């Protein structure tokens, strides 16, 4: 945790220190980042940085909290713009926004990928749990809204449905940027129109698994159109 001295700094200086730390952790990882490099980049003395954070771990965890808060605000705005929209269309929008999301949060993603795939930190679970809780919260919120509006079946197991949707969305986004996580679905570095078509397939599966049957029968809208 930061010391009280850090919180007494003016906001511009706090933001400058955080921005420099994010840059270092994203480019060099936790192990390769030093307090000295962060202090130099932020234009402060290393001794001053130690007055704000007693150890590199404290600085790192504060940066993780900072990143999670930024993503939280982004998601809140994302959902607010889609208030009243069908829950499955909102999940589709989240899937197809992968390139915009990666561009907006490129440093965040590098830091997360470092701890996921490259660095074996003793507090790895603590860090990943912060991101995981955020995703779980909003996935459950979407499902609850979908049930309230009659779009999602009341009979679903909320925990299981949330787990499945979160897992697929994560793998969809990872597959678009990392070939070893694509597993033949054809997402890696594909143009937006291909991402959109693949997202339609995923959403159709979600509708069948968790959605309420459409009026007039159990066929999906796509099936009904083909039958016509």
Task: Walk me through the structure.
With 228 residues, the protein is mainly α. It has two domains: 1-62, Arc Repressor Mutant, subunit A (Orthogonal Bundle), CATH 1.10.10.60; 85-214, Tetracycline Repressor, domain 2 (Orthogonal Bundle). 73% of the residues lie in helices and 0% in strands. It has twelve helices and no strands. The chain has helices spanning 4-7, 11-32, 35-42, 46-52, 56-80, 87-96, 98-104, 106-118, 124-148, 158-177, 192-210, 221-227. Helix 5 (56-80) packs parallel to helix 9 (124-148). The longest helix has 25 residues, at 56-80. The model is unreliable at 219-228 (pLDDT under 50).
Mind telling me the CATH class of the largest domain? Mainly Alpha
**Fourth-level CATH superfamily of the largest domain:** Tetracycline Repressor, domain 2
How many DSSP H or I helices?
12
Strand residue content: under 5%
**Low-pLDDT sequence parts:** 219-228
Task: Write down the domain tally.
Answer: 2
**What is CATH's topology name of the largest domain?**
Tetracycline Repressor, domain 2
Helical content stands at over 70%
Query: What composes the largest sheet?
Result: none
Summarize the structure.
With 228 residues, the chain is mostly helical.
Which terms would index this structure?
228 residues; mainly alpha; Tetracycline Repressor, domain 2; 2 domains; 12 helices; disordered C terminus
Blueprint of the fold:
Blueprint: H1 4-7, H2 11-32, H3 35-42, H4 46-52, H5 56-80, H6 87-96, H7 98-104, H8 106-118, H9 124-148, H10 158-177, H11 192-210, H12 221-227
